[in-house]
Design brief:
The complex is a heterodimer of chains A (130) and B (369).
Chain A (H helix, E strand, L loop, with lengths): L8 E2 L4 E5 L5 E5 L1 H7 L2 E5 L6 E2 L4 E7 L3 E5 L4 E6 L8 H5 L7 E5 L2 H5 L4 H12 L1
Chain B lengths: L7 H6 L3 E5 L2 E6 L3 H10 L2 E4 L4 E6 L3 H8 L13 E7 L5 E11 L2 E6 L4 H15 L4 E4 L3 E7 L3 H8 L3 H5 L7 E4 L2 E4 L8 E7 L3 H10 L3 E2 L2 H10 L35 H6 L4 E8 L10 E4 L2 E11 L4 E9 L7 E6 L2 E8 L4 E2 L2 E2 L2 H4 L6
Parallel strand pairs in B: 3-13
Antiparallel strand pairs in B: 1-2, 3-9, 4-7, 4-8, 5-6, 6-7, 9-12, 10-11, 11-12, 14-17, 14-19, 15-16, 15-18, 16-17, 18-19, 20-21
Helix pairs in contact in B: 2-8, 5-7
The chains are: A alpha+beta (130), B alpha+beta (369).
Chain lengths: 130, 369
């Protein structure tokens, strides 16, 4: 069963987004995404300090199957990447919602509120699966 | 509408992720491709390879016909059950398909050809037979299923699973086969491990699969099959060679038998021009994953990756690549991945054989900084 935590926000390209108390957001890929990718073997992280527009490719997840772009959910600056995943990439397959990829400082906090909620994302996944 | 094998229902029950593979609905994995890969390297795995086509060549001229149609020489097969890996070439020396041929008797050979090329192969064989006036019957056996059980414990698990099998197959040497009741059991495979490929009548396929999995062979999908064959340095038709590439440019010169004056199809073209390119193994020193069609820059010119993957055994990325023939083992090359040149080294392949890395001496090389 694919998990979709209620407290998170989501994108149509299968990133999850958590709003942190300090105004930053934490970004990862959803359980649906890790399942579709298969065993993950490498992640190319974004440069710290890099800025991105909403929907811009900022990271690459390589699975045994293929390389997949990961997109910035909103416009902003990359302020952290999850180095602890290095050489333990299978953590992303085991718990996609714990294994975050990067943190961003959004240009505009309101952009985050405009992302999909869990119910909308679940509907989106169901439509893609059929 | 995808074609399905006799084991499709079993794959569904087992929760396989099914994909379209050359028009066949086949399991990609049953959960984790990497775990399946390790099972084959460490214990035993089982694959449904029923999409591959068994073709029998029967009749008075069977041997002469195959000596004409194949670049390897079936005259080497001197006792029933012996097998040979061979390419079937076109007039230009390109590879129509690669296959295994088993010698059953003077007037009977059994071929196992690739799924995606089976119809093309049958048409080609019929044409070669007609043009040469050979008296042969070419009989596709769509009534047969095939499973491969592979790994260091594969034979022991098969003997445990199937009563009578041990006595029938214990003395089989690698690359030979024997009949066991209705079953055709070959000590061959596509993983670099010991094991059997077992051809059974379709109605018996489910029984064979269940008995082998109960004895501890882990179901494995095409994903693991691909990483295993690549570690074992085995070519994949359509990716590492095809009708536009000669076997001499595909690391398959050892399968082209020119020791006699035998006039096989494609020979004249091979004799005319020495290969300008060669298939080379690559080990990525930087972090990332090599993939088919990435460009490779060498000191002797540019080449291209034909198959690339992450090697679960080495925890590094490996590839087969078609490079200028002047390149050598030990050369440093640059592979372009997402616009960046990453460091790789040419290594001999197979990369892994019977569970062991054969490229350890290259693993310690420094990465580019």
């Amino acid at each position: 069963m694919i998990k979709t935590p209620q407290e998170l926000k989501y994108t149509s390209s299968h990133e999850w987004v958590r709003r942190e108390p300090d105004g930053t957001i934490t970004v990862g890929i959803t359980d649906f995404a890790q399942e579709a990718l298969g065993d993950i073997v490498f992640i190319e992280f974004p440069q710290l300090g890099r800025t991105a527009k909403a929907g811009e490719a900022v990271a690459v997840v390589e699975s045994v199957k293929a390389a997949s772009d990961i997109y910035a959910p909103v416009a902003g600056e990359i302020v952290a990447v999850n180095d602890s995943l290095k050489d333990a990439w299978e953590g992303l397959n085991q718990d996609a919602f714990a294994a975050w990829l990067f943190k961003m400082k959004p240009d505009n906090a309101a952009d985050v509120a405009g992302l999909m909620d869990a119910t909308a994302y679940q509907t989106h996944v169901d439509s893609e699966a059929h | 509408m995808l074609k399905t094998t006799a084991l499709n229902g079993i794959h569904r029950e087992a929760g396989a992720k099914l994909v379209d593979f050359g028009g066949w609905e086949m399991p990609l994995h049953y959960g984790s491709q990497i775990e399946e890969h390790h099972a084959v390297r460490r214990t035993a795995g089982i694959f449904d390879v029923s999409h591959m086509r068994v073709v029998e060549v029967l009749g008075r001229d069977a041997r002469a016909f195959l000596r004409r149609a194949l670049a390897n020489d079936v005259a080497k097969l001197d006792s029933p059950g012996r097998a040979l890996y061979a390419c079937m070439l076109n007039d230009a020396g390109g590879v129509v398909d690669d296959l295994i041929v088993y010698y059953l008797g003077d007037e009977a050979y059994r071929l196992v050809v690739n799924a995606g090329t089976a119809d093309k192969d049958l048409a080609w064989l019929a044409r070669v037979a007609a043009e040469g006036g050979f008296s042969v019957a070419i009989v596709p056996r769509a009534d047969l299923a095939m499973v491969a059980v592979q790994g260091p414990e594969a034979r022991a698990r098969a003997w445990q699973a199937l009563p009578g099998m041990q006595a029938a197959t214990e003395s089989l040497k690698p690359f030979s086969a024997a009949f066991f009741r209705d079953w055709f059991v070959a000590r061959t495979g596509y993983t670099g491990e010991d094991g059997f490929e077992i051809v059974v009548p379709e109605p018996l396929a489910a029984h064979a699969w269940r008995a082998l999995t109960r004895a501890g062979a882990r179901p494995c999908g095409l994903g693991a099959r691909d990483t295993l064959r690549l570690e074992a340095g085995m070519n994949l038709y359509g990716q590492d060679m095809d009708e536009t590439t000669s076997p001499l440019e595909s690391g398959l010169a050892w399968t082209v038998d020119r020791k006699t004056d035998r006039d096989f199809i494609g020979r004249a073209a091979l004799d005319r021009s020495p290969p300008a390119r060669a298939l080379r193994g690559l080990l990525l020193l930087d972090q990332g994953v090599l993939r088919a069609h990435q460009k490779v820059a060498t000191a002797h010119g540019e080449g291209e990756i034909t198959s690339g993957t992450f090697s679960p055994t080495l925890s590094r990325s490996i590839a087969l690549s078609r490079l200028p023939a002047a390149t050598q083992v030990g050369d440093r090359v640059a592979v372009e991945i997402r616009g960046k040149p990453l460091a790789a080294v040419i290594v001999p392949y197979p990369f892994v054989r019977q569970g062991k890395s054969l490229v350890d001496s290259f693993l310690s090389q420094e990465r580019s900084s």
